[in-house]
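Continuing the batch. This is chain 6 of the set; chains 1 through 5 are on the previous pages. Same settings as before, nothing changed between runs. Recording input and output for traceability.
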Amino acid sequence: MPEKRILHAHLKRLKNGGVKVKYWDGDVQTYGPADPYVTLHIKDPRVVRKMLRSPSLGIGESYAEGLLDVEGPLTDVVRLGIENPSQLRPIVRALTNPKLHRNIRARQKGYIAHHYDLGNDFYERWLDKQMLYTCAYFRSPKDSLEKAQEQKIDYVLKKLRLQKGQSVADLGCGWGTLLITAAKKYGATGIGVTLSEEQVKYANAAAKKAGVHKQVKFELLNYQALPERGQMFDRVVSVGMMEHVGRGNHHTYFETVDALLKPGGVSVAHFISQQKELPNDPWIDKYIFPGGYLPTPREITALLPRYDFRLTDYENLRPHYALTLHEWRERFNKHRAWVEKKFDKKFFRMWDFWLACSEGSFKYGGIDLSHFVFTKGYTNDLPLTREDWYK
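Output for chain 6:
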C-alpha cells in the first residue's frame, strides 16, 4: 500500500534513536541506528495519511481515537521527534501549517474555559491539595508533589521580595493559592484575576476558609481590564499565565504590568518558554490550549527596556516541570475510570497523551520553564544577594 511505502521511506531517514512499527497488516519493521525507544502499533492506514500531513495532529488524534497504540514510554515518542526534527517534518507541504486559533481579547475567555472550566472535581482528582496547576519546585527528586508545590509558592514569594502588608496583583491567579499564602504569611493585600469561572468560585471560597477574604479577592476579569481601575500595586506576579497571552501580544502584557506596578516595585513572571519563535503545536492548539503560544526568553528580554523594567534575575527550571508532569500523570492515570465516566475514553487518552508528551518535552529539552524577575526602574532597597531565596 502507498501509505506503508511512504512511511517506510520516511522513517528510514532517522539519524538518532530508534522505533519499531507494527503495521495493520501484521508486518513489523524497525528503524533508526539505535535500539527502539518505543513500538508504534498502527492499526489503520488512515493513521499514516494523518501523520504525513501533520505528525503532531496525526499521532495525537490517532492515539486518542485508539487507532494508534504505543508500547513503551509515551515520553519517548517526543524524545524521538526532538532528536530527529528535520527527518520527521510533514511530507504533504500544503498542510504543514494547519490553521491555528487567533488569540484576540474577545476570544480569550472561551479559550481559557476550554481548558480550565472542565470542573474543579476533575482537577481535584490529580493535582496537589492546594490545586496548583503550574511547575512545582523540587529541592530533591524525592519530594512529594505537595511539598514541591509548597516550595514553589514560597520560592516565588521570596523572589518577589514581598514585605509585610504590601499589595499584590496576581494575573492569571489560578485557584488562588499564591495570593492566599501571601496574605497569610506576609499580611499582603491584593487581587487575583482569571477568566475561569471555576477558578474564581474555588479561590474565593478558599480565601474565606483561610480567613483572608478581607485581604484578598478574586475576580472573573481579563488582566488587561485591571488597569482601568487606576489601582497600583507593590508587586505584580503571573504564574503559568504568559503562555495564554498569545503570539505578538506580549507588549500588551507588559503595558498592563507597567500600569499596575508602582515605581521600584518587583514583578515575577513564571511561564513555559521555547528556544525559537515557533507557532503553537497544532494538536495542542486544537485540543488542549487554543490560542496559546510559548514565548522565547529573547522575546521577553527585548521588551523589558521599553517600559524601563530592569531584569534582576533569570532562571530556567526545566527539570522541575518534567518531575511535576510525571507526578500529575501518575495521579491522573489512577483516576482513569472516573475520568472516562465523566468524559469518555477518547478524552482520557487525549489528556494522557498530552501529559506524557509534555513531560517528554521538558525531560528531553524541547521546552523550558522560565522565571523572570524584574523591577520597575531602579531600586536600591533590595538585598544584594539571592541567599535568602535558598534558606
